[in-house]
Design brief:
This protein is mainly alpha-helical. Helix content is about 60%, strand content about 5%. It contains 13 helices and 3 strands, in the order H-H-H-H-H-H-H-E-E-E-H-H-H-H-H-H. A 3-stranded antiparallel sheet has the order 1-2-3.
Length: about 290
């Protein structure tokens, strides 16, 4: 039944290969636990006590609460699938609760330091140098996710409107305005890219040395190379630039709903985490300026 479930989430639910692999690993791990601990060969026969025992063993083994919760979610999806197909009569995960996870505030760069960092940057005049500059400017200037950056095509850029069209989670499109400098950078880069590679407007915007679609590790390497100069950033990652984009906007008084739309969040709850960072700045201003502080 595990193979049947994996085919279901892969072909009917259209989950990504990465997600399907995670489900497969979680279910195999649980299956091995049931076989070795309870001599239960088929996890369709597992019960609530076995699942609780597995969760406890994961916690005792040092697995993080976030990872444990992902594994619990994998089991819940699997048994829900079995229940719908009448393979089981009772869902053993009904009373299994997720663990409490400490909410971490997203890391972001100090505004003054980051501005100085951007002004100091010097890039090579080659196409590769232009691409690296564009990559950094897009991540910080629009707040897009890594997957959204990699999916951008030349045709998604509208120079007349100074916008880019982004395909986000759940295939939701959004239009993001860009600055004049980023607009100019994009036009120059696309011109150089067309000289070196395809003129096809449907080609990917960010490419590797051979003109093919860029890949995540390539972007991580480039971002880390430059962000190593930014001391206020703990994590030198593409997502850190997304956090920095959102925090700097809110620090400048941007409307929370507008930031939500720019980030492509489905609800305000996901965006509100950035208000904690802005609140810290407000408290600092209050402490310095208010006579009763």
């Amino acid at each position: 039944m595990v193979d049947s479930f994996l085919r279901y989430i892969s072909y009917e639910k259209r989950y990504s290969q990465h997600t399907v692999k995670s489900y497969q690993n979680d279910l195999k791990q649980f299956e091995f636990f049931c076989q070795s601990k309870f001599k239960v060969l088929n996890i369709t026969e597992a019960n609530q006590l076995m699942i609780r025992a597995w969760v406890l063993s994961l916690m005792d083994g040092g697995t993080s609460p976030r990872s444990v919760n992902r594994k619990i979610a994998s089991l819940k999806s699997f048994y829900k699938y079995l229940l719908k197909r009448d393979t089981i009569s009772k869902d053993p995960t009904v009373k299994i609760k997720s663990l409490k996870v400490k909410k971490e505030l997203p890391g972001f760069a100090n505004e003054e330091e980051f501005s100085d960092f951007l002004n100091r940057l010097v890039f090579d005049d080659s196409l590769e140098g232009q691409m690296e500059q564009l990559l950094l400017e897009l991540l910080y200037g629009t707040g897009i996710r890594l997957s959204e950056l990699l999916g951008l095509r030349v045709s998604d850029f509208n120079p007349g409107q100074s916008t880019i069209k982004v395909l986000g989670k759940r295939n939701k499109e959004r239009i993001i305005p860009i600055s004049r400098s980023l607009n100019s950078l994009l036009k120059n880069y696309i011109t150089e890219k067309n000289h070196a590679f395809s003129h096809d407007s449907d080609s990917f915007l960010i490419v590797n040395k051979n003109g093919g679609q860029a890949y995540p590790m390539m972007v991580y390497r480039i971002v880390k190379k430059y962000l190593s100069q930014v001391q206020s950033l703990d994590k030198k990652s593409p997502h850190a630039l997304r956090h920095t984009f959102a925090t700097h906007l809110l620090n400048k008084g941007a409307d929370l709903n507008a930031v939500k739309d720019l980030l492509g969040h489905s609800s305000l709850a996901a965006t509100q985490v950035y208000t904690h960072n802005s609140l810290d700045k407000l408290k600092s201003v209050f402490d310095q300026a208010h006579p009763k502080a």
